[in-house]
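Predict both folds.
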Amino acid sequence: MPAIQRSEFALALNQVSNERGLDPEIILDAVRNAILAAYRKDHPEAGEMEDYTALLDANTGEAKILQGETDVTPPGFGRIAAQTAKQVILQKIREKEKESVMADFRQKVGSIVNGMVLRFAGPNVIVDIGKTEAIMPPVEQIQNEKYHLNQRLAVYVLNIAEGPRGEEVVVSRAHIGLLEGLFKREVPEVAQGAVEIKEIAREPGNRSKIAVFSTQAGIDPVGSCVGQKGVRVQAIIQEFGGLEKIDIIQWQETPKNYITQALSPAKELKVEVDEEEKVAHVFVAPEELSLAIGKEGQNVRLASKLTGYNLEIEEDKTVAPKKEPKEKAKEEKEQKTEKIKVETAEDKVETSEDKVEASSVETASETVETVETEENKNEGS
């Protein structure tokens, strides 16, 4: 079988196809359309182009224009067509390439990718995510996070939306999917399915609560996510620049136990659950009340989102408030001071009695001496 000699056109076609990752037939179709556009531009009297077709030899690149079955290719049309169609062909290739990229990112919706801040378009942040640029609108940004050019960050692929320039990838830093994806990336047990993330409640840039559950016996879900000396969860916190605190709790099937876990770090809770109304009354010891509610109600708000229950926090008045360590130490110090005062007073009383006794003895001695002196005087006389 004789070898097939490939022309420069065929070699160029294959090169473009390989570099752009496009089917050669797609490129040929774009060239045919470009040739028809070029013919119409040079022959406006041709009328409707539906009657015309373009033939293109995939090996030689020779182009012909047919009107029905008649060859109407003008002399020298090949050179004119090549010059006129160049930009159209490139545009078509760019469009097909973008469609290919969008098809690839449709498969990545719901996952996280690494990106770099490329520029700012008004309130929007444009992020380079590899093969294309993505847009991060203000609603998907972390409000207290500052972005700068060339900043590298992980983003969550939210969806593919129609924009002013066609389809564009929308990414997010505020979506709970970013937090879940980071745990899958940092914690092998989560990625393998040995530890399951049941629920996530998040206030981006401030605090998050995540409930985890072990699907295999012998695996501590909370310990797996925290890591040795907190190395795993700290890596995730650093991804947010240390702005967002993360509470990891163990998911419980019983609502009462689940709510108790969700309100951590508060302890000593009494929970009464109304499962029909989805309401839970939580009675908290006085010293734990501020922990249960959290700063500006953040802890109880996140716990409510996590459990799906409307939580009503009340102080448990049946429990006597425990004294703070400082107050207890102060009271012990005061008691010691009082004891010292009492002992000192007793010592003073004893000293006074001793002085009185000593004084009495001295006076008696002086009296005896005086009597003896008078007797001696009388004997001498």
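Second protein follows, with its predicted structure tokens after the sequence.
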Amino acid sequence: MVSNAIPESPEAEGAGDYSTAVPTVPELSLAAKVEGLLFVSSGAVQVANLANVLHVPAREIEAALHSLAESYRGRGIRLQRHDSRAQLTSAPELASHVERLLGLEATTHLTQAALEVLAIIAYQQPVTRPHIDSIRGVNSESVLGTLLRHGLIEEAGRSDGPGRPILYRTTPEFLRHFGLNSLSELPPLGLPPIAPAAPGANSPESGESPQEGSETG
């Protein structure tokens, strides 16, 4: 009886031995992991959330964020910080190119009144509307509504003062609008401190605001 078996040659020895070993992949650095998480996030991410996901202390996340920010210098990506949040954005120098690429309308131009209110909030946040009104001397309710609609400011709780007025602060969109990576990049004002109100005067934190001269945003 003739065997149909094909004799194995020395060269074929081990040819059917398929290895199941998985190639070793180098462990990503913490900065690389943080970068990846920020890349897939639709908005700013809390440092505490990153620390929880990666199971590391918040201080290590901060160090990783600092490393990323340094590595992005001179590149088309920036690390934007706002309070305890972080996100990746395009470099502000690319704004016009990004608008053309994505077919976006030109950046909304803000009125002088809106810029005044925004400046007060940016430098004194969190701040209430009565306090803003006391500085400007006019009712700023309409202007605040405009800034809220554009996402440049947001509510940040309520003051402990009389009437518990709403506190306002800037948003990450504010930073993008003005090409800032963080609030620390705001230019210094160099103004003298505001003197405390005299006894019996309307407090900035009270629920009353100037009524005359109300304007729109």
